[in-house]
Amino acid sequence: MIICTDENGKDNMESLDEQDGKEESNHSVLHRKSSLPLTPEDEPFDVYRSPPEIKYGLLIPPNHSPLKLLVVCAHPDPVSEALSKAADKLGYDVTTCHSYEEALEEFLSKLHDLIVIDARYTSKALDYDTLCRSIRNTRGSQHTAAVALVKRSVFDKDDVTIMSLLDAGFNRCIAETTNIVHFVNELIQIRHGDIRPLAQTAVNQSLYIALEKCSDIVLITDDSYRLQYVNRSSERFLGYRYDELLGKSIHEQFIADPLQVTSMTSSLMRAREWQGSLLVRKKSQDTVSCNCKGIPIICAGRVPTHFVLILDVHGITELTPTSYSLDKPRGSVQSNRRTSMDVRSVSSDYFRRTSLAKLSALPLEAPITKVISLLSQAQEQTNPNVVSIIDKVIEILNNTELYSPHLKDDLRLKCDEPVTSDLITALLMQQPQIQLAPSSRRSSNDSTAVRNVSRGISKVPAQIKDLLDTSLTWEFDIFRLEELTNKKPLIHLGMNLFLHFDVPATLNCDEKTLQNWLTVIEMNYHVDNFYHNSTHAADVMQATAGFLEKDRLKAIMDPLDEASSLIAACSHDVDHPGKSSAFLSNCDNPLAILYNDVTVLENHHAALTFKLTLGDDRINIFKHLDRETYKVARHNVIDMILATEMTKHFEHLAKFVNVFCQKTSRVDGESSDYIPITLPDNITLVKRMMIKCADVSNPTRPLRLCVEWARRIAEEYFAQTDEEKSKGLPVVMPMFDRITCSIPKSQIGFVDYIVHDMFEAWDAFIDMPELVTYMRQNYIRWKEFDEEGHNTSSDIRKLQNTILMAPAIIPKSSIKRND
Ligand SMILES: Nc1ncnc2c1ncn2[C@@H]1O[C@@H]2COP(=O)(O)O[C@H]2[C@H]1O
Questions:
Q1: What's the 475 CA to ligand 1 centre distance in angstroms?
Q2: What interface predicted TM-score (ipTM) does this complex get?
Q3: Which pTM does this prediction carry?
Q4: Domains present along the chain, CATH in parentheses
């Protein structure tokens, strides 16, 4: 805070209008909230723009009265007498001198506000020219108005004399008169035109001194952002001399952040104050981040003529890598810096900003850069509440992990249901906690698989055949197929669906190879897993096939898309160990080591699929594809398998919803239903969403199937918890303990957090209302089971043997779209 006082220590910062109001009754007095200088934001817009406003906040001249007038004339006459009388009338303190020496001495002792010298005659005693020059050479005289009293003839006609008088240091000339009123008029004009501006300039010096002494960096630019004033702190801190800065543009000179500059300048040009952080480059090329306030000043007209930038040195942080060390010696200004700065966050902010700056210099524009820049522009035209909301949005957008969920804290806050919290956290978060413990993973045995290839399906029993006739219905009984096929449902269902979708033709592959492939893939599922076994793979493949039958998908998927989707569904969990990726990471499993704890299982499923497929010609379903087609198929399969990773659930869902569940906006701003669905990138989004939905479709199946899947996944979780406990590993889902866990609660949470929104979106896209209908019906039943206390696996078993014995088929007619 800067306070200026007059010589008596009185607070002297006051509106000139208050002073003016005493003299000029017709002057509009503008009210203000404080006596400090105003910024445009402090006043209503129209008030700020009104011309008198520019006077606000000026430091008023010393309030001494009367004004001191020195009249110097060699020979008193009626003219000088009229002048003195006029001055008396105005209440001036008048002194009259008749010689050069007397006048100089008098002036030096009193430093008058106004000196009027009789320039009509030159005499030995008084050379007006010399007297004026001498006075002007006196320190402090620059704040005194000097006026030459000239003959009427000179005033009217002799411009040469007038100019030489002004050259000698007079501020103006007045014509001789004996009319007191004329002199009164002249003196009032001189007071407004000369004395007050000079006095004002004199006291403004105090403000400059305040600016020079203050520790913040204060810069004033013109309307082209060329520096007009820099204070000492600026010189000291930036390392430039003021003459190296004056006249230079702030952009070129030291502001290293084009995006921020754009945001600042567009605010300032609209006469709005701006606040934010700026990256400032010092002369040494070190870069610092400072909190900056930009204030537009309108000195004339209606648009800003100057800008004041105040950089807060207390908020300055050195950002160059060499200056991260906190115990670096500090200079005078640096010693003001906070030492408790979070260096990591600052450095990441720095790198984000510098890379943004670099990016904006490239001839490329990422959509995100465009979005941020549009939001910044929108900020300029809106109110502070929206500005701060947009600030938050920009902060989020600036985070590179746009779609990754930050659910853990959120969930812990919102979801006080521990089973749900455990489940969703485990599904969505990568949380390896490295501990050295032996691997329990069973390794796959390729050679066994290949040896057994010949055990294909030559003759399909009638029961299986009948069941497979329903393979494209949503109510398909996968557990019955599991039973009938002696836990080998994939080979049967897979072959049935491959043939239905003409996959042999698409891959130019004989049926035997496809059968072999299915056999090997199925054998690489762990039959002992409660949930992640080949029945789950068959179930996901069956759901995928059901989706592919829908017109919306038929319209956009080509045969290779269909084949790839079915292949991906078959193999998406191959060799699943029945434990989560987090578990593998926690026990230093070789797969976790191989994939660096990142997307461990899905990477393994995808890699193993191709390792198996390409490893033996007899099962290589891609062997007849040309290289390009193979590459497309391979890319499709890998992309879909990786999309089943649950830590990316919200990323995939959000992308899908963004593209397909919102009306697209055309460039002209008009809304349109047009979605460029056939763009390859968009088809990829659909395929990812499709396999994701298929993968977790069990809560949308008929109740009997849904409950069995829920029991199976719970059993698998319990087994993992048991093993974690027995081996002293971190327990990934502590609530999934077979004694205490509530299975209905886990299902309610799973639907609430994962399934509901995804299936609403998916149904809206492919038009399969039965998905949502079953999901809702099942949800209600889980709530009932929960209320009735059917919690444990054995409770659920009992339910399955009683009320859930009814057939799974629900008449199509009962399925209504629920909008
Ligand atoms: N009914 C369910 N209840 C709880 N979790 C489930 C259910 N169905 C699927 N999941 C989880 O969702 C995950 C989807 O990917 P995975 O098949 O790897 O593993 C699956 C399970 O961990």
A1: 19
A2: 0.99
A3: 0.54
A4: 68-210 (3.40.50.2300), 214-312 (3.30.450.20), 462-660+676-804 (1.10.1300.10)
